[in-house]
């Protein structure tokens, strides 16, 4: 979610902000990074709860991320194992985030991941909760799976969506992509759209 909101952010990054207890008390858009720094600096969940009033359950989840980040920093591209890299992807670390932790590059981490055959699986969302047959084909990618829900035989035209909805933009960008899909289908082509957090899915 943090990467979607700001493309300059690697994720729940403990190195963006310094620890400041006054900032931890105030709910701002930058507090998450102060929280990450505090966890890295061994603030306890109880202490963070007192300062932030964020539910302890969520604080434990945040701590899990930073604890694993610390684990990653003990490796480099020559020593990181398949199991360590796979777990990082399952937790939600991006290749860029892993690269920062192991002092490498995003390209090198991606290459290593492909050598280890760590790639995401395509899963299908049941948009009607099994109440009746679902005809909409909403898909998502995850590393927390072992099989694909469907096959891609090839000869499919990919349309790239406009990405995250931001203040100042609107659904017309999603509609352009939909128009492109419809035109390609009129030409008899099979299509798939790749997008993240599109406005038309998130609210409509």
TrEMBL record:
GO-annotated cellular components? cytosol
Its protein name is Carbamoyl-phosphate synthetase 2/aspartate transcarbamylase/dihydroorotase
Instruction: Enumerate the GO terms in the molecular function aspect.
Output: aspartate carbamoyltransferase activity; ATP binding; carbamoyl-phosphate synthase (glutamine-hydrolyzing) activity; dihydroorotase activity
Could you tell me which residue ranges the Carbamoyl-phosphate synthetase large subunit oligomerisation domain spans?
19-143
Q: Which InterPro entries match?
A: CarbamoylP_synth_lsu_oligo_sf, CPSase_lsu_oligo, CPSase_preATP-grasp, PreATP-grasp_dom_sf
> GO biological process: what's one of them?
glutamine metabolic process
Which keywords fit this entry according to its UniProt record? ATP-binding, Ligase, Nucleotide-binding
Q: Which SUPFAM superfamilies match?
A: Carbamoyl phosphate synthetase, large subunit connection domain, PreATP-grasp domain
PANTHER family hit by this protein: CAD PROTEIN (PTHR11405:SF5), CARBAMOYLTRANSFERASE FAMILY MEMBER (PTHR11405)
* Highest taxon above the source species: Eukaryota
| Keyword match Mitochondrion | no
Query: Could you tell me the gene encoding this protein?
Result: CAD
């Amino acid at each position: 979610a943090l990467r979607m909101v700001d493309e300059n952010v690697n994720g729940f990054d403990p190195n963006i902000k310094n620890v400041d207890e006054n900032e931890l008390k105030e709910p701002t858009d930058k507090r998450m990074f102060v929280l990450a720094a505090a966890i890295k600096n061994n603030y306890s969940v109880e202490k963070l709860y007192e300062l932030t009033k964020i539910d302890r359950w969520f604080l434990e989840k945040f701590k899990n991320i930073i604890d694993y980040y610390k684990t990653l920093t003990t490796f480099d591209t020559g020593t990181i194992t398949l199991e360590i890299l796979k777990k990082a992807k399952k937790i939600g670390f991006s290749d860029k985030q892993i690269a920062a932790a192991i002092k490498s590059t995003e390209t090198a981490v991606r290459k290593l991941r492909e050598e280890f055959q760590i790639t995401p699986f395509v899963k299908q969302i049941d948009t009607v909760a099994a109440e009746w047959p679902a005809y909409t084909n909403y898909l998502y990618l995850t590393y927390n799976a072992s099989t694909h829900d469907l096959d891609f035989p090839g000869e499919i035209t990919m349309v790239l969506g406009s990405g995250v909805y931001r203040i100042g933009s609107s659904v017309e960008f999603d509609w352009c992509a939909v128009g492109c899909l419809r035109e390609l289908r009129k030409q008899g082509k099979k299509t798939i759209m790749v997008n993240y957090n599109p406005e038309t899915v998130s609210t409509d």
